[in-house]
């Protein structure tokens, strides 16, 4: 059996396709490592916690509760959402938390492995994969809670719910793709993750998370173009069985994200040595 | 034919390093900024030759060597000589700025033991975490689990959280997992410095066993260890190879350029002036060495005992002698002690040695009037007896 040969040199003039192939091969080859890292982190998180799973959905739940309260007391006046407001708000904040989780996942899992990255050579793609695994785990808890809401508020079961995993996949694909592009710079400068947190805080208000798109005005234009709108609305649609007409936009985003994800993976891969050296 | 093939395989070049260079930045902010620029130039496949930008320096410069299966290369040099940088490039963690590294086969590293351990989880769980990170498959870990626990000798604690382990236990567990690697090229950086004597011996055996079937690159500051394991050596200074070849020669070169003067005076009285002179600064192992010295004290003593010890690079006392053992006493008259002594046949292996000289009151249990540590240093060179021990013993080989 010929031995595998590795060559390390300055030039990065290897073709994009070769890099992509190597990256995907490492994604596939690192399944065990990714799974192991996921189990490790999840176990460690819950073993040293009393409330355990509660933390997965307590944040979006409180945000939703605040808006339910504001709306219920008439402090703010929101337009009709078509479904019971608590379901609207909670589904919004939940899906929103999955999106922000997906955007932050590559950076945070790469950051947590910074120490060993400078000592041991392992497929770094495992970090991305384990970030996605953890996200799926958290999301599944959130979804159970969301389903409970749907049933409690009598929205009822819709067959479109079967599409939810696909919608979720689209959401995660979108978030991770963005996350991959910000990770290299985010590893160098701590400012990046602060900017992202702040930026997402603003973006939430131009996305129909806790209120619907207004009928007219500037906000309507911004919200309609905002790709996150399509993600949120389509995901919510399949759960509660409504249609808001963003399905096509959602599909376009999903299709665009696939080549972008590949670019992101290659960018991540060639950036790792720089990160290990400098960060 | 088949045998010929095997023979060639056993000697194949596994590591080939050609004109390797790597620069580093002294300033954090500038380094980050260069990093951000490098991220961009990476994308556009910048092929220009790299030159030093402001605040950068060459951490490794123009290093070339080859390593075959069965060989072990010792990397020697002072702190900051570029050893760890070189290892990181060989390990594929960072990219070189110039030159090329070609490595064949599975690369294993013993640089950080127990990487990926989570303190809250048990030893058993962490075997899987660590094993996965160093590239073992689930099946490999499953089948080696008992062997790993045996090797680490922590049967009764294996289900205890690792945060309650002693540091020695953590290292043992980490090494036990790492020992399951079957690498073609093994990179080792100073990991054996920890752990107790019994465990170090065990690690040494594992490494000797691995050394037969793979190429090893070994970084350590322990010259006896390097001397025992390595076949060839490279001495790095400021990122440049200054000596490359037979390990004993490289260790010798390293030891004589070692400039650590550790002069220190202890005792109840400090000599105001002391002078030490040697008959020769560089001697052969079978030559005599005479040490002349004079000390100036504020007080006289009629009968004092002299003693000296010879200290090697590892700060280990090689031998020691008291003048009282030979019935000899000295006097401090008018505050001055002027004397000399001759060490017959120094009998030392090649390297650099220090001499401590002491003066004590006239009995064995007497306190030091003074002791001058590192009063002088000398180099033993040119011995044809390469030995891993400290002492060269002339031996008569009978029929």
Automatic annotation (TrEMBL), chain A:
Principal location: membrane
GO BP terms in the entry: lipopolysaccharide transport
Keyword field contains Transport: yes
Keyword annotations of the record: Membrane, Transmembrane, Transmembrane helix, Transport
Membrane topology: Multi-pass membrane protein
Membership in a protein family: Belongs to the ABC-2 integral membrane protein family.
Protein's UniProt name: ABC transporter permease
TrEMBL record, chain B:
PROSITE patterns in the record: ABC_TRANSPORTER_1, ABC_TRANSPORTER_2
Domain ABC transporter: from-to ranges: 15-263
Molecular function terms, GO-annotated: ABC-type transporter activity; ATP binding; ATP hydrolysis activity
Lineage: superkingdom: Bacteria
Alphabetical keyword list: ATP-binding, Nucleotide-binding, Transport
UniProt GO cellular component terms: membrane
Protein name per UniProt: ABC transporter ATP-binding protein
Record has ATP-binding as a keyword: yes
UniProt record similarity statement: Belongs to the ABC transporter superfamily.
InterPro entries assigned to the protein according to its UniProt record, in alphabetical order: AAA+_ATPase, ABC_transporter-like_ATP-bd, ABC_transporter-like_CS, ABC_transpr_TagH-like, Bact_Polysacc_Export_ATP-bd, P-loop_NTPase, Wzt_C
